[in-house]
Amino acid sequence: MRESKSDKDTRVKKIVNRLRLDYPVLKPALDYSDALQCLVATILSAQCTDARVNMVTPALFRRYSSVEDFAEADQETLEEMIRSTGFFRSKAKSIKSCCNTIVRKHSGRVPDTMEELVALEGVGRKTANCVLGNAYGKPAVMVDTHVIRLTWRMGMTSHKDPDKIEIDIKSLFPEDMWMVVSNVLILHGRTVCKARKPGCSDCSVRDHCIRRDVK
Q1: Catalytic residue among 50, 91, 96, 144
Q2: Sign of the C-alpha dihedral, residues 18, 195, 47, 151?
Q3: Which one-letter DSSP state was computed for residue 188?
Q4: pLDDT tens for residues 95-120?
Q5: Do 131 and 48 share a structural domain?
Q6: How many domains does the chain have?
Q7: Relative orientation angle of helices 178-191 and 162-172, to the nearest 10 degrees
Q8: Same domain, 100 and 157
Q9: pLDDT tens string 135-152
Q10: Were 70 and a residue from 30, 99, 114, 143 both cysteine, which residue would form a disulfide, CB within 3.0 to 4.6 Å?
Q11: Which residues contact 199 (CB under 8 A, 6 or more apart)?
Q12: By residue range, what is the domain housing residue 10?
């Protein structure tokens, strides 16, 4: 039977409210202390685990403490420091390029609008939303691989395209809930609703979940 919009709204809100109880502390998975570090760490996290990024960034942020430091960094040295995160050449190029732009166009301050952030090299909507939501406390929806997987499985969206998922989440929840929804889904995706083996028997929201693609 096709689910009505009203029933869907009620069901997905029950999921999020329960997950908020399961994950009362919504600490970002990446370690950073300001918008610049958040931006760099998020760029490094592409196709890399947050745990690995957190192993790399302490030494990286000690060596490069400002936008100017990253902009002027020696390419090979930067590449070597981030090598273990994968795709290190393109990531180093993106970090240097976007920091150069921040110095030239934004007086050395990481911009705080979607339009300005996505104009930076290596910065897509996911990275921009992470900076806006986590570093600047603005309403934002972070759509990473966990959010893509869980919103589909749980029937919050009929899409697998990140931009369309972002729109769907925004239509289901008020602005002040966007980061909460993102963070609880990410945490649940890491701990219970995993990609290869979802822990449905241990899931607190299984009674409200459509469980698409789960065998």
Answers
A1: 144
A2: negative
A3: H
A4: 999 999 999 999 999 999 999 999 99
A5: yes
A6: 2
A7: 120
A8: no
A9: 999 999 999 999 999 999
A10: 99
A11: 192, 193
A12: 5-27+141-208
